[in-house]
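Structure in, sequence out. Go:
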């Protein structure tokens, strides 16, 4: 299946694109236990004891599988202490998905990482777990309409953006540049990937799905989850693609984990109904999601934060990113107005272009920050501990102040007379 509107699908590919996609064929194979589980039939025909013995031969993989199988909403967080117990409590489908997810991430983790890494693997792993939990909860709440098993939604959410790991694994230096540019320009990574590499993570993910012989539904999710729902081709997997797209937008809006995307997330209230998914009641769903994510991240050793702390942690990280953006906007604002700080570089025509880009980035940051602020305020209202509530409200207050500064900086970042501003600016040291 082809991605609608993509210029990189078909026979008109550059040699660089062909080379990158050929590299996918040389990536490590899927773990034998994962391949075996994918080939299995229904639970009634499977020797579960044999499967448990096979999984338990890999201690690292076993630990991750147990972490992914623990589900706070089912009351089994503390009861799963072995793979065999996991199969009994959550079923073969959940174990199969956990094995597939853990194997995929393990296969694409370099043994030795050298130099500065722009790609935050731990943060990306957290983000994927958040999308998986969101999809799982939404699938459960809309089962009669979507007809998607929650455990299938979980694994699709976990693997939907794995093409980013593929590109980072195959081209670490080039992909570091992609991340740097996407962050600077506040763009979705796929746009920058196509511009710099000639191919995006969506294509790379689909190529990996084909290489590993993953189910067709997963391949479609990897390729099409960034496509607007109304543009998706008719397919039996269309509801799954829409579910994962909405779940990813929801998680990016909340700022949970690190997605590697820096554009403004798609509008969740529009995306979910388009995919025939009833939007959740935010306060109740948010609490369920934070509990589920916190439970799995703790079990995986990726975080020790409880639900409330996890939410505040994500808000503070978003605020830090926006403060960095704000500093850049204000510096260029001063430069363009001819008020260059003594240690700054004199503005140029390209500096004006940067100023306009950063002004737009400032507007986007303000939009994102406004959403984050409202979610934090909602969280604060539902906190029982006075200290936690006060901390959340302090973040709200600081965020609103930052919104105001961003708006002012964005409005005034380009002086009325651009040529005069350039010529009158003092030279930097």
């Amino acid at each position: 299946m082809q991605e609608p509107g993509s210029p990189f699908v078909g026979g008109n590919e550059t040699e660089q694109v062909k080379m990158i996609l050929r590299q996918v064929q040389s990536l490590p194979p899927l773990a034998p236990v994962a391949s075996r589980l994918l080939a299995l039939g229904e639970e009634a025909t499977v020797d579960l004891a044999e499967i448990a013995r096979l999984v338990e031969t890999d201690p690292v993989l076993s630990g991750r599988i147990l972490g992914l199988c623990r589900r706070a909403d089912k009351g089994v967080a503390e009861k799963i202490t072995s793979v065999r117990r996991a199969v009994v409590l959550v079923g073969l489908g959940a174990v199969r998905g956990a094995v597939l997810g853990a194997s995929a991430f393990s296969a694409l983790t370099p043994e030795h990482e050298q130099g500065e890494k722009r790609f935050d693997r731990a943060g990306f792993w957290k983000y994927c777990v958040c999308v998986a939990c969101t999809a799982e909860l939404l699938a459960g709440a809309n089962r009669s309409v979507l007809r998607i098993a929650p455990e299938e939604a979980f694994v699709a959410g976990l693997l939907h953006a794995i093409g980013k790991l593929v590109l980072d694994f195959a081209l670490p230096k080039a992909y570091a540049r992609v991340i740097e540019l996407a962050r600077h320009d506040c763009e979705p990574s796929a746009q920058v990937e196509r511009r710099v590499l000639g191919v995006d993570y969506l294509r790379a993910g689909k190529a990996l799905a084909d290489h590993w012989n993953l189910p067709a539904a997963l391949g479609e999710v990897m390729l099409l989850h960034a496509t607007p729902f109304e543009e998706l081709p008719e397919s039996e997997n269309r509801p799954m693609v829409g579910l994962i797209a909405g779940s990813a937008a929801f998680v990016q809006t909340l700022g949970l984990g690190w997605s590697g995307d820096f554009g403004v997330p798609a509008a969740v209230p529009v995306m979910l109904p388009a995919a025939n998914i009833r939007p959740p009641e935010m306060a109740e769903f948010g609490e369920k999601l934070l509990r589920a994510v916190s439970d799995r991240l703790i079990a995986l050793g990726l975080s020790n934060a409880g639900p409330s702390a996890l939410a505040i942690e994500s808000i503070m990280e978003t605020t830090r990113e926006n403060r960095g953006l704000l500093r850049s906007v204000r510096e260029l604002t001063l430069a363009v107005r001819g008020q260059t700080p003594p240690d700054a570089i004199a503005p140029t025509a390209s500096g004006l272009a940067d100023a306009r880009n950063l002004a737009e980035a400032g507007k986007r940051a303000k939009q994102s920050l406004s959403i984050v602020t409202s979610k934090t305020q909602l969280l604060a209202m539902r906190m029982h501990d006075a200290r936690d509530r006060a901390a959340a409200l302090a973040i709200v207050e600081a965020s609103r102040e930052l919104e105001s500064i961003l708006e002012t900086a964005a409005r005034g970042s380009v002086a009325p007379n651009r040529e005069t501003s350039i010529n009158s600016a003092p030279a930097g040291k």
